[in-house]
Amino acid sequence: MNSPETSLSSPLFPASHPAILALADGTVFHGVSIGAEGHSVAELVFNTSLTGYQEILTDPSYNGQIVTLTYPHIGNTGVNEEDVEGRRVFAAGLVVRDCPALLSNFRATSSLPDYLKKEGIVAISGVDTRKLTRILRDGGAQGACIMTGTDAGAALALARSFPGMAGQDLARVVSTDQVQPWTQGSWQLGSGYTQPQGDGPHVVAYDFGVKFNILRLLADRGCRLTVVPAQTPVEEVLKLNPDGIFLSNGPGDPEPCDYAIAATRTFLDKKLPVFGICLGHQILGLAIGAKTVKMKTGHHGANHPVRDIDTGRVFITSQNHGFAVDAATLPAHARVTHVSLFDGTLQGLELTDRPAFGFQGHPEASPGPHDIGVLFDKFMSLLADQK
Ligand SMILES: NC(=O)CC[C@H](N)C(=O)O
């Protein structure tokens, strides 16, 4: 699809810091740089969350992706030191309609543009994100380039050079390189992050790009947590004497994560409780012989309805994925527990002969509604049953 170049020039978007967003399909948007100088080439996706831009930017699952936020005013609450879901900004770039010049929030310690510059992330504002989102919705996620300056030809060539997300193993790229304990619990107004006792079951969490709030919610429930790098061999994990295994979210395609798929098979054989979220859920699916597929636009937002098959109850969930487990390929010893009410894709699975389950969305939210946080309680029950 080829569209004419789009420009939203106004006094709000001074020409002094121009930037370009080029899509592999030939569309070019002109706007204003609100981040670092330079360029970034990645898969372009859109996220419909109204809040939580700092959590979205720092979610390691966005590695290799430029995020367009459909909510038009982004940056109005600034950023702070606490609302991070990873060690740094992992999104490859940010596209917004408007970044207000003024920010207002009692917790803010920096403006969004200053933060993006400090983190070295290119970002563009002044883009008609409604038009852009329609292009992505109709044509699917695609390669794109944000570039500071005005060289549309160079940006287009780079956008077209993006090889696609399929086949990319990014989990081991973003993972920690150390085995380490995790002790932080959820944030409380007035006191900040808590430090729960951690005298419950020992959970070893594979870090494929884990969002911190997952670890916090497990810590809140009393888990003693050890976070391990994505490629940690099974024998090393077993030496830690875990009561259960957590498989985290993460960026990229799950299929090339053969190290994690093989490790998961062993944990399942040993009947250890296993809980997978997003990439971890996909890895669980692959470990039992199911297949994963690349979706057209994926799911990125904080209001996705998901039906619990057993109870009929609908949960409003946070989502961020571009791949999905193909329900038609599940083996006989697995069943579907949740489906998306947007497109019917598989959202949850459970093994019928092992204490293992996975969820495709993000039950830890951050950002998002907390409806389906009950899945953490389900994991706690599996851990208790094994004792
Ligand atoms: N949030 C995630 O873990 C995303 C999983 C995977 N990278 C996908 O895009 O589907």
Automatic annotation (TrEMBL):
Region (CPSase): 1-201
Pfam families: CPSase_sm_chain, GATase
Residue ranges constituting the Carbamoyl-phosphate synthase small subunit N-terminal domain according to the UniProt record: 17-147
Active site positions, chain numbering: 278, 362, 364
Catalytic activity: hydrogencarbonate + L-glutamine + 2 ATP + H2O = carbamoyl phosphate + L-glutamate + 2 ADP + phosphate + 2 H(+); L-glutamine + H2O = L-glutamate + NH4(+)
UniProt pathway: Pyrimidine metabolism; UMP biosynthesis via de novo pathway; (S)-dihydroorotate from bicarbonate: step 1/3; Amino-acid biosynthesis; L-arginine biosynthesis; carbamoyl phosphate from bicarbonate: step 1/1
Keywords from the UniProt entry: Amino-acid biosynthesis, Arginine biosynthesis, ATP-binding, Glutamine amidotransferase, Ligase, Nucleotide-binding, Pyrimidine biosynthesis
Enzyme Commission number(s): 6.3.5.5
Any one GO molecular-function label of the UniProt entry: carbamoyl-phosphate synthase (glutamine-hydrolyzing) activity
Biological-process GO terms, alphabetical: 'de novo' pyrimidine nucleobase biosynthetic process; 'de novo' UMP biosynthetic process; glutamine metabolic process; L-arginine biosynthetic process
EC top class, as a word: ligase
Gene3D superfamilies: 3.40.50.880, Carbamoyl-phosphate synthase small subunit, N-terminal domain
Ligand binding (L-glutamine): 61, 250, 252, 279, 282, 320, 322-323
Described function: Small subunit of the glutamine-dependent carbamoyl phosphate synthetase (CPSase). CPSase catalyzes the formation of carbamoyl phosphate from the ammonia moiety of glutamine, carbonate, and phosphate donated by ATP, constituting the first step of 2 biosynthetic pathways, one leading to arginine and/or urea and the other to pyrimidine nucleotides. The small subunit (glutamine amidotransferase) binds and cleaves glutamine to supply the large subunit with the substrate ammonia.
Family: Belongs to the CarA family.
Subunit description: Composed of two chains; the small (or glutamine) chain promotes the hydrolysis of glutamine to ammonia, which is used by the large (or ammonia) chain to synthesize carbamoyl phosphate. Tetramer of heterodimers (alpha,beta)4.
Record's protein name: Carbamoyl phosphate synthase small chain
Native source species: Corticimicrobacter populi
Gene: carA
